[in-house]
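From the methods appendix. Each design record in this collection lists the tokenized structure first, followed by the designed amino acid sequence. Records were kept in a plain field format so they could be parsed without special tools. The example shown here is representative of the layout used throughout.

RECORD:
FOLD TOKENS (475 positions):
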């Protein structure tokens, strides 16, 4: 009798262990959201909401008084923590004013160029990275990891007007991977990686090796941080994430992939695919802004000055569509992005992404280069944050795998993804909680603005006013 009881307990434990991939990750994610909300103190008004519906979302987002960025928001401490050192001169976190205007003009000048040059550079950099996969029949890759070296080379060329040396490419990809992995709470920050890239950029700036007029309002060190944060952090990370989402969507929807591969020069359809990818998987989860004056929209409530507004891209992108959870590029045949609830690059009136023109050109060129060489297949989960970095099977065009091999690869990806979630979800809970608490302890943005004005000038007589630059958390 006792042996049968032990056998039942053992069987129950075995079933519980085998079932963990199906319940543990979602349970941990729900717990993590509750922990983060509690640690955040409930700051922020998330829109759209019952008072500000999707029909008024862009009106509020583009309101002149919704332009504060970091000063006055405890939420900023968390973002500055992940971007430090140098968050104080990151374009996305500068307050409106002359310094922001100068930095924004510099960014646009570096990103500008003929469409043919942008497309050609993206295709060339993509081809160079794909060539490193060799001539094998198939390869299992993580799409985000595959694309990071592409954009490291691409943006190095735009900033320095010269090819990216292999060692420097490694500096850039290590840094970008560190930033995005810590943002997703899958790994702790690795400050040495960031420092190595900072040193390289500081040397180039000091040697006058940047063929662009960098912002005069920034010190030499701040110019290095500006280049690092804008181009070798945000630009590399965001385009790598965008391409990972796009290629993973194509790997999941073979009919869409086949149509793009058959007619690679059909820009209109490929743009529909990109628009639908951005709608379902926006690169920005929430953009927070601080109101600089009271805002009243029509007959709605007044939002007082100092309110922290959290604009939810996923929630907004899910409104105004039939079957919003499905991936349907054809929905864009009868509508344009201007007529839809669709702001992949933000709104024009409130510091839109400066790569709004460059990104679609570069993504089209890179996608064509990938599909010219490979067919894509995957069976993993696809969420906006893609913490698994988008596992995918690449198969050489014209050399398909035998069906049992292809099915086996799909099964392997699916099972591995499930079981990786079992370890990843608790790790994200622990690391995320620790980093949020550590960010609250350091209060980087709050400390910075306690001693400086919005242009970064020290405030006389304030503690810390004589210590230049953004405070730096420990490694």
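DESIGN:
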């Amino acid at each position: 009798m006792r042996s049968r009881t032990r056998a039942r307990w053992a069987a129950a434990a075995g079933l519980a262990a085998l079932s963990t991939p199906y319940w543990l990750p979602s349970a941990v994610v729900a717990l993590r959201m509750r922990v983060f909300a509690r640690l955040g103190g409930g700051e922020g008004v998330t829109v759209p909401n019952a008072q500000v519906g999707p029909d008024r979302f862009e009106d509020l987002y583009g309101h002149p008084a919704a332009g504060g960025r970091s000063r006055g928001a405890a939420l900023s401490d968390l973002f500055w923590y992940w971007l430090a050192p140098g968050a104080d001169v990151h374009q996305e976190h500068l307050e409106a004013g002359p310094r922001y205007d100068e930095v924004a003009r510099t960014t646009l000048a570096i990103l500008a160029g003929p469409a043919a040059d942008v497309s050609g550079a993206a295709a060339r950099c993509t081809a160079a990275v794909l060539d490193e996969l060799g001539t094998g029949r198939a390869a299992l890759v993580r799409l985000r990891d595959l694309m990071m070296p592409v954009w490291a080379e691409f943006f190095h060329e735009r900033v320095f007007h010269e090819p990216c040396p292999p060692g420097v490419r490694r500096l850039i990809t290590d840094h970008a991977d560190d930033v995005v992995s810590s943002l997703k709470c899958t790994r702790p920050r690795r400050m040495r990686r960031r420092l190595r890239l900072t040193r390289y950029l500081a040397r180039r700036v000091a040697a006058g090796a940047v063929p662009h007029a960098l912002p005069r309002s920034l010190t030499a060190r701040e110019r290095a941080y500006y280049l690092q944060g804008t181009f070798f952090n945000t630009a590399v990370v965001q385009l790598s994430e965008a391409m990972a989402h796009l290629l993973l969507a194509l790997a999941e929807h073979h009919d869409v992939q086949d149509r793009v591969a058959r007619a690679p020069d059909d820009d209109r359809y490929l743009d529909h695919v990109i628009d639908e990818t951005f709608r379902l998987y926006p690169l920005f989860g929430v953009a927070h802004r601080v109101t600089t004056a009271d805002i009243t929209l029509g007959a709605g409530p007044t939002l007082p000055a100092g309110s922290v507004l959290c604009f939810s891209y996923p929630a907004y992108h899910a409104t105004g569509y039939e079957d919003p959870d499905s991936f349907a590029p054809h929905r864009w045949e009868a509508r344009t992005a201007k007529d839809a609830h669709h702001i992949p690059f933000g709104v024009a009136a409130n510091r839109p992404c400066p790569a709004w023109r460059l990104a679609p050109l570069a993504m089209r060129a890179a996608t064509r280069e990938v599909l010219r060489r490979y067919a894509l297949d995957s069976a993993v989960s696809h969420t906006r944050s893609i913490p698994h970095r988008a596992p995918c099977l690449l198969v050489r065009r014209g050399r398909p795998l035998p069906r049992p091999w292809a099915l086996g690869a799909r099964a392997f990806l699916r099972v591995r993804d499930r079981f990786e979630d079992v370890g990843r979800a608790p790790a994200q809970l622990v690391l995320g909680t620790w980093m949020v608490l550590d960010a609250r302890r350091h209060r980087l943005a709050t400390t910075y603005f306690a001693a400086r004005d919005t242009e970064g000038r020290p405030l006389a007589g304030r503690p810390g006013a004589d210590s230049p630059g953004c405070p730096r958390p420990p490694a």
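APPENDIX NOTE: The two ends are 56 Å apart (CA to CA).
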